[in-house]
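dude i think i finally got it to work??
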Amino acid sequence: MNNPHNNPRVTGAIAVAASATLWGVDGILLTPQLYNLNTAFVVFVIHLFPFLLMNFFFFKQYRLLKTMSRSDFLYFTLIALFGGALGTLAIVKSLFLLHFNNLSVIVLLQKLQPVFAVILARIILKERIKKHFVLWAGIALVGGYFLTFGWALPDFSTEGVTTIYAALLSLLAAFSFGSSTVFSKKILGNYSFYSSTFFRYCFTTVIMLVIVLLTGHIGDFSQITPRNWMFIVLIGLTTGSGAIFLYYYGLRNVKASISTFLELMYPITAVVLDYFVNKTVYSPVQWIAAVAMVFAIVMLNVDKKKK
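look at this
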């Protein structure tokens, strides 16, 4: 009898679930702890540290630059720009804006990513949109609205505008990460999971270096406290590059339709931690909206895999 622990499907599923759990921990416990630093600088540092560490193990990956086609270079740049820089900037800024209030709402809104990914796949990859897409996408978007505002209309007071701004940034992050997924499809067939991760961090670090130089925040290293460094190292080794390595490793042996359910560990972890750590409590309508939104996202992914 085969040992289940040696089954690549089992280990792959565990890896995907573990990576999703780490992302949930990051959104609630780790990244918000860096709120005293500039957002762009935070995104730069949490990519710079793991990238420098990767150089000790994957330095030989640089030789691939000599044979990298213009198309591959372009798509790596787009993955870094949307998935690394823009998406991370948006989600980090949205978490900072809420000051530990309703952080799980932001995480759940970011799960709208497949809606944008399917639309962009239709535009860029010419993939056919299934007939039920509009239905499930509509339910997901409506669920996102009620998750954020409940039965009430949007509040345009100072505090309310901050919530709206944070929600819009979370949607921007969903669009950016969805874009990155589509761009990744163009190149991941030609590169290993560790090469893809290495160049994603390489290109993102360069992009963010340019941004912090232009915005005058390159000198913010002096503002990093010992406590900040602790969380930067934790993010770099676990919820950052560590989670991405686990995710790509797991996807090699797990069907995409199965990974959709495993990735629900991301919002589940975020909601549970937000409740116990930040005492965030949803209203009944928010719970219904959250369940409806997540169910619609699952159906979007399952339907997308049907022939």
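The radius of gyration is 19 Å.
im so relieved honestly
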